[in-house]
Task: structure prediction
Amino acid sequence: MEATIWEALLGYFFMTVLSVSIYWSIRSLLQIKKKWWCKPILLLISWLILGMIIFIGDWGNLPATLLIFMLGIWNCCEGSRWKRLVIGFMLASTVFAFNGFWDNGLEMFLFMYMKIPHNMVTRWTCLLYRGGYALLLYLFIRSRKPRADFELTKTLWKLLFVLNLPSLGIVLSLVLLRNPFGQNLPTILADSALFLIAAFAIIGLIWAMLVLERHQALEQENALARMNRQYFESMEQQNFAIRRMKHDLTNHLQTLLVLSEEKRTDYIEEMLGSSTLTQTLHYSGDTTVNVVLSAKEGIMRQKGIHFVPHIDITEELPFAKADICALFANTLDNAIEACEKLSVEERRIEMEARLGKGLFVVSVRNSCLGAGSQPLEGKMPKTTKEDERNHGLGLKSIQEITKRYGGNMELKMEEKEFELFLFLPINS
Result:
């Protein structure tokens, strides 16, 4: 009796270890909420669906377990509603299909026709097959290298949901609508084939989903690269204009030397009225930062935005110039866009940028429409433009550059103020 108890406890222990593969699959496809109870709940529902027995004609186990699993995914994971719904159904369907294949097909065949003792079939062989399938499922997903924060369009999620319905329908029909009595070898083989078809069809859908995710990620990377290149090219043109202005200034000084005193005064007043000579050119020791801030401050001056820069960069930044341009230009463009929705008196942007102690730090605070305190917890605020696909790339570009250099970006929205904070480590 004691040996049986210890054997059962050992079986539960190994089932718990193997169910971690289901949890890893969830974590690879969905972001987990930053609540202390989310990970334990996901581990629990992973253990539940991996170990749940699925018998034909049993109306208790499958519907209840599916409902519990979907509630756990819905409440413990982030992402759009359609993403959580589709991925939850996909993972549950493929695991239930394989459990049904084992419980109603392979196990029944080994016990009834191969005459293998029932206790040998139901314990360690069950753990081996179910745990092995869960591990292979995770390794397959992991080999595709998905980003847990990926998001497809609503149309694609709906399409994947519809394509998942036939496989889920096969599993539900076999379990809930079939007569559990009078099974023979042909029906066992047919049921096994249907369960396997459903399991691997869903794996095919997961593969298709990850291919779409990768294709969309490449499209977004190309769009960000084009946008950053355009920023850099525009700043290069601005830099050229500044160099030309310096050259022209030399000619102006030479002209002043030969003018009479009366004409010289008029000439100087005309020069001082020129916008090209009133720009502040030296914010920092980095040329790219100077060019970007000079251009953006001119735009802010035209729009009546009060700009307060605190720049402490005494040398050239050790990053690609296109990335430096994109970081500063995108942060200020987003702040300018938010300020334009306010009255002139309320428009204010404050920027801090510092280089030192192995870190490059940028903080931008701008006034915005009051929306109450909204801790974003790393999530991207939704763009207010109708064309969501082609807008809202500024923050994504900043996030991509920050991650590429091993840094981090944080967003925070308080009453009438939005703050973007990022840091990049400086490799010695």
